[in-house]
Amino acid sequence: MSPTGISARQTRSTPYREANDLRLGGFIDHRTFRFVREYPHPPKRVWSALTEPSQLGVWLWPCEKFEARLGGVGVFNPGKRVTLQVTEFDPPRRLSLSELIAFTVEATPGGSRLTVDLSRPPDGWSPMGLAGYHGWLGRLSRLLAGRPQDETETWASGIWNAVLAHCEWEVSRFVAGGERALWRIHFQENESAVTTEAAGGLDQLAALLCERNLSATIDGFGDDPCDMQESLALCDDRIKAVIAHLQARGLSRDRINVGFVLGNYHYLAERESAAGRAFNRRIEVRPVY
Question: How far is CA 254 from CA 80, 214, 247, in A?
Answer without folding.
Answer: 22, 11, 10
